[in-house]
Amino acid sequence: MTARLRHYVCGSTSHDIGAMFHGASHGVREFPSGVFLYDGADGRRVLFDTGYATGEWHTGWRGAVYRRLLPPSVDDADDVAARLRADGIDPASVSHVVLSHLHPDHVGGVRRFPHATFVLSAGHERTLSAPRLRTGVLPGLFPEWFPGAGRSVLDVDAFSTVEIRGVALHAHDLFGDGSYLVVDLPGHADGHLGALIEHRVLLAGDAAWGTDLIEATEGLKTLPRLVQHDADRYAATARVLGGLMSAGIRVVCSHDPLGAKELLD
Ligand SMILES: [Zn+2]
């Protein structure tokens, strides 16, 4: 079987670019919430992020603050399980779910995968153990079974330095065959992760708001800078992404508008 990487949109939000970056012209842009499904050569199926939650959120005052600041646009068809089923994929066939980080637009569909193994970083675990508004995590979005779910937590020792076309990355080889490297892309959230698929496509999560906005990252305004876990590392990660793009790696950010569904073609 040939490996495939498919992209689905599970809800979206909108922001004024001019309010985010110095020197950017004002204009509201839609930020789709991307979910990425990798089908490996031997039948393994790995989801990267899970999009927004549909329906009621049950996330209390934190959720109300979040929705006011970043209003989501999401309906039933945006549910990750519905998106997969519409494409002929049984959500129960997903063996692994890698979470880039724990913001609401990435974890809303976690509840749809009770039998998957969740791939998390030590930073994710830290954040979950002490959720605060500042970290942007809404505990109510996680199902009750989540603390007992199958999980593989990657601490610092799980990552080693690999060179990808001359660019150094901290990576964890998920299956030991190089097909799926979980990559440390720090800055946006504690323990933020990306994934390098088949040494060709880098799923960058929220390491930047968009591939076309990577260069603008240095000009981040005060408020969007403040919501980063570590703004200096966020800027350094953006430079790494730029280096990978120059070296011919296809970099895809979670909120990039993508025309095509298949990303390895
Ligand atoms: Zn985020």
Fold blueprint:
Blueprint lengths: L3 E13 L11 E12 L5 E4 L11 H10 L2 E2 L6 H7 L9 E3 L5 H4 L9 E5 H8 L21 E4 L5 E5 L2 E7 L6 E5 L8 E5 L3 E3 L18 H5 L4 H16 L3 E3 L13
Parallel strand pairs: 3-5, 5-6, 6-7, 12-13
Antiparallel strand pairs: 1-2, 1-4, 2-3, 8-9, 9-10, 10-11, 11-12
Average pLDDT works out at 93
H/E series: EEEHEHEHEHEEEEEEHHE
Count of the domains: 1
CATH class categorisation? Alpha Beta
Question: Helical percent range?
Answer: 10-25%
- SS elements, strand count: 13
Structural class: alpha/beta
What proportion strand? 25-35%
Output the radius of gyration. 17 Å
Spatially, the strands of the biggest sheet line up as: 4-1-2-3-5-6-7
- Terminal CA distance reads 14 Å
What would you note in describing this structure?
The structure is a single chain. This protein has helices at residues 60-69, 80-86, 104-107, 122-129, 222-226, 231-246; strands spanning 4-16, 28-39, 45-48, 72-73, 96-98, 117-121, 151-154, 160-164, 167-173, 180-184, 193-197, 201-203, 250-252. It has 6 helices and 13 strands. It has a 7-stranded mixed β-sheet with strand order 4-1-2-3-5-6-7. The protein has a 6-stranded mixed β-sheet with strand order 8-9-10-11-12-13. The chain starts with a strand and ends in a 13-residue tail after the last strand. It has a single domain, classed as Ribonuclease Z/Hydroxyacylglutathione hydrolase-like (Metallo-beta-lactamase, Chain A). A hairpin with a 6-residue loop joins strand 9 and strand 10 (180-184). Helices cover 19% and strands 27% of the residues. With 265 residues, the protein is of the alpha/beta class.
